[in-house]
Amino acid sequence: MKVLMLGRSDLFSAGGGDKVQIDNTAAELRKLGIEVDIDVTSDRSDFIKYDIVHVFQLDWVLDTYFHIKNAKKFGKPVVFSPIHHSMREVKKFDDEYVFDLRRVSRYIFRDQFKRDTLKNLYRALFDSKLIKPFLFSVVKGFKNMHIEMLKMSDIVLVQTELEARDLMDTYKVDFKWVKVPNGVGNVFLDKVDFEKPFNFKDYIICVGRIEARKNQLKIINAVKKLRDDKNLDVKLVFIGKKSTKKHFEYVHKFNVELQKYPWIIYIEQVPYEQIPSYFHFAKVGISASWFETTGLTSLDALFVGTNAVACGDRAKEYLDGYASYCRPDEDDSIYEALLKEYYAERPKLPSDIINTYTWKNAAAKTLEVYKSIR
C-alpha cells in the first residue's frame, strides 16, 4: 500500500504539532510495511500511484481544501485528520486575550470564521502562494470550505471524541469518524537513565512556543504567587521558540518578565532526546493553554513520572484523574492547580494508558482505517 500524506504549505519550514503527528505516524506506518510520502502540494499528476491520500489540518489553513479537492478529482480515497480545536475556546481566547494586531479582528468581527479570514489575509501578505487560496476563501466562504472538506472525506480521524462532537456542532454535518489518539515520542517510552539538566532541583517546566495562547505570562504570575505565599525557591523553566514575528507584543512582555525575575529560566531549544530528562527532574509540568487539541506535553510529563497541570476537557479525556486542571483565564486557578501538584506524590500510569498513547498504536489504528476504505 502506498500513501500520500499532505499538509499545509509551511509544514516543513514552520513545524508544529501537526508535523509531529505526521512524521511519527508515517515512521511507524513504514515499520508496518506501508510506503508513505509526505508533501505540501497537491497540484500534481502522480496521484494515480497512491492508494490512499491522507490530508492533515482543517483550522486556519487554506491549502488543505485543495488537497482534498484534487485527490477526489483523481478518484482517490481520502482520510482526513482535521486536528480541530474547540471553536468555543478559540473564540473566548480571541475575545479576551489577544495582543498586537489581532485586536483589530476582535473589534471588526464577532464571527470567528470572519476573524480567521482576516488572519489569513495577514498570512497571505507574507506568502504569495496563499494569495490565490485566500481570494477563493473570500468568495467561497471559509466555513463553507470546511464543510465541503468534511463531506468529501471518506473517513475523518479525530484525536478525541470531543473533537468529533465539536466538528458536528460547529459545521452541522454528518461524517464517518474514528478516534485515533496521538502518542508520546519513543524517547519517553525508552527505559533510560535520566541526566539531570540543572544544578538545582526544584523547578516547574513549561514546553511550547512562546505565544499568547500558550499563556506563559499567566503561568509566571501563578509561580510568583507560589513562591511568595509558600516561601519557595522554585524555578520556572520555559523551553520553546519565541513567536516573535506573529506575536511580537506578547514576546516583548515575556522578555520583560525574563529580565525582571532571575528565577525564570528560558531555553529556546533542547535536543528532543533530552526532553524526557528535563521533564523527569521537574516538580510539575504545566500546560495552561487557552486551547489545544489534546495537550501532549502533559502526557510527556506523566510518562516520565512528573506531576502535570493541564487545561480543558480534551486534556481530561486523555489524562483523566492523573493531572490537575486549571482555567487559562484565571491566575488563581493556575496557582491552585500548581500548588496541588507541587506537593502531590509522583504519578504512576497504568499499563493501559502507557500502551494507548504511543505512535505505534496510532499507526496501527490508522492502518486499520486505510484497509477499510481501500
TrEMBL record:
Domain Glycosyl transferase family: 201-310
Keyword Ribonucleoprotein: no
Molecular function as annotated in GO: glycosyltransferase activity
Keyword Zinc-finger in annotation: no
Keywords linked to the UniProt accession: Transferase
Stored Pfam families: Glycos_transf_1
Residues making up the signal peptide according to the UniProt record: none
UniProt cross-references to InterPro entries, sorted A to Z: Glyco_trans_1
Name of the featured protein: Glycosyl transferase family 1 domain-containing protein
